[in-house]
Task: structure prediction
Amino acid sequence: MDNLNLISPEIFISLSIMFLLIFGVFKKNSSNIIYNFSIISLLIAMVLIFNNPFNIKITLFTESYVIDYLSSFMKVITLLGGVFVLIISSRYLRLFKMLQIEYPILILSSILGMMVMISANDLIVFYIGLELQSLSLYVLASFNRDQLKSSEAGLKYFVLSALSSGLLLYGCSLIYGFSGSTNFNVISDNMISNQYGLTFGIVFILVGLAFKISAVPFHMWAPDVYEGSPTSVTLFFAVVPKIAALTVFIRFLYVPFINMIDQWQTILVFISIASMIFGAVAAIGQTNLKRLVAYSSIGHIGYALAGLSTASNEGIQSSIVYISIYIVMNLGLFSCLFMMKRNDQYFESTDDLSGLSKNHPLLSLSLMIILFSLAGIPPLAGFFAKLYIFKSVIEQSMYFLAIVGLLSTVIAAFYYLRIIKIIYFDEQKEKYDTDHSIWLRLSLALSTLLILLYFIFPNKLVEIVSKIIII
Amino acid sequence: MDFPILSSLILFPFIGALFLLFSKEKEYKNFNTGKYVALFTSSANFLISIYLWYLFDSSTSDFQFIEDKEWIKGFVNYKIGIDGISILFIVLTTLITLLCIISVTNTIKIRLRDFLIAILVMESLMIGVFCSLDLVIFYLFFEAGLIPMFLIIGIWGGTRRVYASFKFFLYTLLGSVLMLVAIISIYWISGTTDIIQLYELGIDTKYQNLLWLAFFSSFAVKTPMWPVHTWLPDAHVEAPTAGSVLLAAILLKMAGYGFIRFSLGLFPIASELFTPFVYSLSLIAIIYTSFVALMQEDMKKLIAYSSVAHMGFVTLGIFTNNQQGIEGSIIQMISHGLVSAALFLCVGVVYDRVHSRLIKTFGGLVSVMPKYSILFMLFTLASLGLPGTSGFIGEFLILMGAFKDNFLVAVIASLGVILGAAYMLWLYRRVVFGKLTNNELLKIPDLNSSEKFILWSLAIPVLFFGFYPEPLINTMEISVKDLIEMYNFNLNMYMPEVQNNG
Result:
């Protein structure tokens, strides 16, 4: 029974998924209630996580499921991200008639999948979680059925993601074959290094994971899917799944395969460098903001992976800090996107931001702060995220990675500056609506203030994260 | 603990900017409250900095008014303090900002509130640069200054403002990220980023060269040194008058200050090694940009190139590593801060009246604007280093230091003085003397009271320090002496080792 107590958040979410499904079927026009209930159930799940012991590592179900500080922290961020995504996108969904009972339930089930991934200590459990979240995401990407682009995005994502899941599964089977177990702890005990089978297995699994977080060279789906999906889903894509995938990266690389670090470190460094450079260069020519966010997220994932590739606790912590700050910045950025609405129409091209500062001074000030922070200019939060990453990278004397990473921030700065230029230097256009929901304003104000004032309390986040010790 | 006077100096303009941000005035024409808030904050800050100079104890080279608080646990402390070198730059910053704000309130017509906010934030950050005693804090202030300057050039600039602002931002950022790598490396090599501790510990000789180069890349872009100076003419030409003034008078000085504080202070052995390299770049800058300045048709561009040449003198002086050279560089920086600010304001004065910066539009201004011509003459002469102006003291000391170190370098640099006289006097002749051909010029009024006030407040220190540089020299003497002693001590201790290895 103790075991069940520990996974009460997961159980609670699955129960509420089932309950909401049945409720939605029997009661007509209940989408609003279901929407609000799913937000509440995410919050309750968060409370349940806080209810669990935080500081000790507990493994459940013959060591296939692990509850520790890392999993609790990442689950809390995932749930928070989910809550914010839901509360700021409600008006968008209502406008496009996408506020149906399935939408919040699919979000809930993909979050459930992510929570399973975060806690997985076994290849099978991990794969089940991954598939649960991916399947929900395929449907979400094509949720706007009337739009060709949305269906296309869903299909593209499905085909490519299924391929990568296949590769990942193949990697799992190789690892099972060469180590005799699917359990991370057992694999690490049984491991005899220099087995090529294991190396191949790691490579395949890394490919699958790199696909899920859209790291170069497995990023091709991201721009199209980000652009085609409804903006609320793009926001979800950009924020929440990254957390779970990053956690799996950490667990997978640092628990069973820490001794094979020579094999995977080079791969990770390469992926990281390629993502940073590609994300920076490819975003320069983009005119669609959602596409631009896709490329920028590719670049940012590169920085998070740079922290992971250091094989040190500081590196892992720095990439967790990075991803947390990145989520806040993205929530702010998308809040701005949701505010670009005029006569029931949303705008998503960079030109639509033209001269925004004259009509909406506060909105453009927040947007500017968020963009400078994404570019990593001090004293905003984005700078500190990069500072921690490069601090841990340079600690390991990986100077090449550090220099390439910082130079690509200069390239990336160019396209963020371009948006700021459009907002501040260009001629103004028509005004946008200002009747935004209170939640949207709140989320924008909150994220902007967090980014702007991070430098006053730089220790809080780091203190929390520094309790995550893997190696 | 004493009253945190430095922190309040940093915070005060920022608070003023916050006030402005939340002021509700829509009408920019009658934006009087905002003007008064900005004027009040900047003049109060100027008075505080003067008071600070008065309190400053120039008989010791120790850092004073130190504030030390834990900031990022186990990594960075918020540590600020000043010595005889930084106090001068702080006073310069507050003076120039005050004058900028006076000039802006009368000349900028659109989005005045935003401009005032940008200038005040800029002031906070610039003061922060000059008093930070921790590398990360320094980097933070140094980089954050890009944001307001980018907006100042981009929003209120001329026709090619977008190009100029991007070039400014990206050039500077590119130089600076290498410095960030170096700063983090120093943390892992020495275990601290506290400058005072680093001065005592010293940095391992085998890393010094690379670290020096990384810092150099940032400061060279900011100075700007040849061949990475090309952003400066663009930025100056496109920036509004107040932007050019801030850029020339203070932003460029951050790099010179950085050379003295970090390159000489932290990496003495590398500095000694790279001295010939810096000499050659400085000489090229002096001679080459002087020739380029001769050929300019745009007044602002000409002054921008003259800035590059003058900063060439500064870098030359800093790396002579003797008392005269470094003191001369600091005086030259202060003097250039005052003089170039004044020259840009002079250009701004006629630009506001005629809306042209081309030299050929003008000619014969002396007959319509006699008061202007006198002041412009004064600053032209100060720029070319006429005895009796502060420009002379700086150049003279630098050349003296250079002669002590290397005869040939000094001779070539002296040529630059002649060229400087040539382009500045020629500019003056073409703008002020000659026949009044352009009929548009007939009706323009002479200086109004606020312009007179601004230019005289710059002229008085230029003349005062030209005749009596004692206050400047007294303030910095001990600090500079100590810096050089530390430099030579390090050199004597480690140089044999380096020679053996090399």
User: Anything to note?
Assistant: Chain B has one domain: 5-501. Chain B has 20 helices and two strands. Residues 5-501 of chain B form one domain. Chain B touches chain A through 31 residues (CB under 8 Å).
